[in-house]
Fold this sequence. Notes:
single chain; mainly alpha; Methane Monooxygenase Hydroxylase, Chain G, domain 1; two-stranded antiparallel sheet; about 75% helix
Amino acid sequence: MWQELIEVLTKICTVYEDLSKIGERKRDALVAVDMKGLAKILDEEQLAAAKIQNLEKKRGAVLLELSKNLKNVTPDTKATELYKNAPSVALRSKLTNLHARLTKNVERAVMLRDNNQILAQSALNAVKFHLNKLSGATVNPTYGRRGGESVAHEKKFDFKA
């Protein structure tokens, strides 16, 4: 069981590393406004997320089996505490190292996701600004009913017939 947990954790770490690389490529595509490249990257990102979801299910199943064999393990037991129950020092060391690696990879993937979200939102705001500028729209100094911007459209033509 412990070896199976190590294998699953190793695979999860690898997928998160791949997700970080995808996040870096996504950032580059957002900065360059490469929509075709961004579409491909989003597909890769979805595949990586699906892999992570499947691997997390496997990890949950392995942890459930381990918890059945260990009496001092409860649903509230932290991973680092669980690893102390490993039968050998080598397994404990490997699990602890994998845990640290996974934590680092997840934090990096989350940071890249957050940064990319800010970039995408900024790009959308810039597009919105230019569209409003082209249409002659102005933003009023008050807020709308839902707390958003209140936009007034200027009429460029007189349609009197």
